Amino acid sequence: MHPLPHPPPKTPTMNVSLTHALREIVDQRLRSGLYGNASEYVRELIRRDDEATGQLRALYQAGVDSGAAAPMAAADWDALRAVARSRPTRSA
Questions:
Q1: pLDDT tens digits along 68-79
Q2: FRET pair for 35, CA 20 to 30 Å: which of 10, 70, 81, 86?
Q3: For residue 4, what are the contacts with CB-CB under 8 A and spacing of at least 6?
Q4: pTM (2 decimals)?
Q5: 33 DSSP assignment
Q6: Residue 59: how many CA atoms within 13 Å on its side-chain side?
Q7: Is residue 90 predicted with pLDDT exceeding 90?
Q8: pLDDT greater than 60 at residue 92
Q9: In which region does residue 33 sit, left (phi positive, over 0), alpha (psi from -120 to 50) or beta (all else)?
Q10: Residues 6 or more apart in contact with residue 54 via CB below 8 angstroms
Q11: Nearest alpha-carbon partner for 22 in 42, 52, 40
Q12: How many CB atoms sit inside 10 A of residue 41's CB?
């Protein structure tokens, strides 16, 4: 006699409370058709957050590994201001 097969493990669930505004954002994403349900959308957000966190940690570590900081000279600040001024402004 063969033993009964084990049912597949259940995916853990989590309940999350959202404000009305956040719930509307979720509903908009679902209506767009990009996601089949709220769980798919939340899983995608968590994956993106995890990836962004890893990238930020790598950038932080690169800064630490680059050595001691050096003070910025007036010319450095002028160059930085010129770059900032050359970028288009954001619309509100």
A1: 989 999 999 999
A2: 10
A3: none
A4: 0.65
A5: T
A6: 6
A7: no
A8: no
A9: left
A10: none
A11: 42
A12: 18
Closest Cα to residue 38, out of 25, 47, 50? 25
Asked if 38 contacts 26 with a C-beta cutoff of 8 angstroms, the reply is yes
Pair 46, 54: CB distance under 8 Å: no
DSSP SS3 for 7 = coil
CB 45 within 8 A of CB 26: no
Phi first, then psi: what are they for 10, rounded to 5°? -75, 145
pLDDT tens profile 5-34: 777 788 899 999 999 999 999 999 999 999
What is the spatial distance between Cα 78 and Cα 81, in angstroms, rounded to a whole number?
A: 5
Residue the block writes with tokens 């966190």: 53
Taking each helix axis from N to C terminus, what angle separates 38-65 and 20-32, rounded to the nearest 10 degrees? 100
